[in-house]
């Protein structure tokens, strides 16, 4: 794993502390952390893609928590210049849902030619209510 990778935070925490100790505001502190850990290295791109492809909602898990986790990963990918097409985002999200959503998801996409992440999440939220 490369030294600047996000997942390596625990291995380099002392080094990181030395880089951010002089920051006197939260925004500058966070910006410095992003600079260190959200580099556009190939290693980071691979790690974020792995997180996205391996994400799976637990059976009876919290839908909102899962949606937020998915959105965070998408945002991390954007920050390292990894573009994910809108339909791919929606399909990856739907595929990441627990098996208990399978029938709903199949009925949701039946007859559709395309779908966006926003549409998929909105339909799921209306189904949950």
Largest sheet, strands/sense/barrel = none
Mean pLDDT, nearest integer?
83
Q: Number of domains in the coordinates?
A: 2
Summarize the helix and strand pattern as letters: HHHHHHH
Radius of gyration: 18 Å
Structural category: mainly alpha
In total, the number of strands is 0
Name the poorly predicted regions.
1-13
Terminal-residue CA separation: 43 Å
Helix share, percent: 55-70%
Instruction: Name the beta content range.
Output: under 5%
Tell me the number of helical segments per DSSP (H or I, 4 or more residues long): 7
Outline of the structure:
This is Retrovirus-related Pol polyprotein from transposon TNT 1-94. With 129 residues, this protein is mostly helical.
Can you describe this structure?
63% of the residues lie in helices and 0% in strands. Helix 3 packs antiparallel against helix 4 and helix 5 runs parallel beside helix 7. The radius of gyration is 18 Å and the shape is elongated. The protein has 129 residues and is mostly helical. The protein starts with 12 loop residues before the first helix and ends with a helix. It has 2 domains: 39 residues, no CATH class; 89 residues, no CATH class. The N terminus is likely disordered.
């Amino acid at each position: 794993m490369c030294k600047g990778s996000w997942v390596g935070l625990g291995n380099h925490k002392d080094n990181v502390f030395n880089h951010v100790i002089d920051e006197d505001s939260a925004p500058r502190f966070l910006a410095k952390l992003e600079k260190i850990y959200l580099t556009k290295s190939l290693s980071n791109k691979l790690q974020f893609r792995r997180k996205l492809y391996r994400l799976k909602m637990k059976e009876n898990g919290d839908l909102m928590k899962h949606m937020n986790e998915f959105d965070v990963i998408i945002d991390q990918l954007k920050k390292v210049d990894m573009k994910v097409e809108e339909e791919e985002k929606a399909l990856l999200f739907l595929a990441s849902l627990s098996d208990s959503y399978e029938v709903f998801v199949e009925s949701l996409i039946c007859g559709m030619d395309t779908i966006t992440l926003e549409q998929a999440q909105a339909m799921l939220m209306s189904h949950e209510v």
